[in-house]
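Progress note, sequence design subtask.
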């Protein structure tokens, strides 16, 4: 059975827990995601630890945001870990995104548009022209224009972003909550079914899976729901 298009966010306090979660979910999902908490605590070795002996994709969610030369250097430093995806902030601008793309030819650079924890009122406070849906589309077009091969947005914007950037860009959506799960600090959310129907390619799900008493069973349950959905018609 094909693993489901889910990236489980391994936001664990220690490496043993992250590696245990990874081994439990690996039979059911395509990807595990390493974020700032684990990477800053354990460094590059964390990638091998969560991969184990499996061939699971690793998504390195470091959200780089700096001047182009610094981002190019940081991207080169992690490219040797062969992550399938590496995130940068789209708001870093086109030269920065291009620098990351050129520094890691074997990794898809995923540009984070507007964090899924932000609401329209937060964008006003930051001084980013909203609403969030407009800002996401604007940043998505900017990032793709600079060569980003993937985009991070909320499932609520996935359909509009897909219409904006076409079929070849990988759309990654955090802010995914199975029916009945708490939103926690996520603001712009949708269910896994709705995220996939809106055109997302990879659903990021963390605490609803890792906070379950059996993360393997929780991942298998979401994967089973996705497998039951009708497949989209191939484009003519
Ligand atoms: O806009 C963004 C970008 C990244 N994230 C990351 O995704 C996971 C979500 O975890 P949950 O436990 O499912 O909320 C987390 O690692 C974030 O750093 C995001 O949420 N939103």
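Output:
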């Amino acid at each position: 059975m094909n693993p489901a298009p889910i990236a489980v966010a391994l936001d664990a306090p220690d490496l043993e827990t992250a590696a245990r979660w990874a081994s439990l979910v690996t039979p059911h999902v395509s990807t595990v995601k390493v974020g700032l908490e684990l990477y800053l605590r354990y460094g590059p070795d964390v990638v091998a630890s969560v991969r184990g002996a499996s061939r699971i994709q690793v998504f390195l969610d470091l959200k780089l945001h700096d001047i182009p030369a610094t981002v190019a250097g940081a991207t080169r430093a992690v490219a040797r870990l062969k992550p399938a995806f590496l995130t940068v902030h789209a708001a870093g601008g086109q030269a920065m995104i291009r620098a990351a793309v050129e520094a890691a030819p074997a990794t898809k650079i995923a540009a984070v548009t507007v964090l899924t924890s932000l609401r329209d009122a937060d964008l006003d406070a930051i001084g980013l022209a909203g609403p969030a849906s407009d800002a996401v589309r604007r940043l998505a077009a900017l990032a793709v224009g600079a060569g980003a091969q993937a985009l991070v947005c909320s499932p609520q914007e996935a359909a509009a972003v897909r219409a904006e950037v076409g079929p070849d860009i990988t759309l990654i959506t955090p802010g995914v909550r199975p029916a009945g799960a708490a939103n926690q600090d996520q603001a712009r959310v949708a269910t896994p079914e709705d995220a996939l129907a809106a055109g997302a390619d990879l659903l990021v799900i963390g605490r609803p899976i890792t906070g379950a008493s059996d993360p393997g069973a929780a991942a298998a349950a979401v994967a089973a729901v996705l497998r039951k959905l009708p497949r989209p018609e191939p484009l003519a």
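Residues 86 and 109 are 5 Å apart (CA to CA). Work on this subtask will continue into the next period as scheduled.
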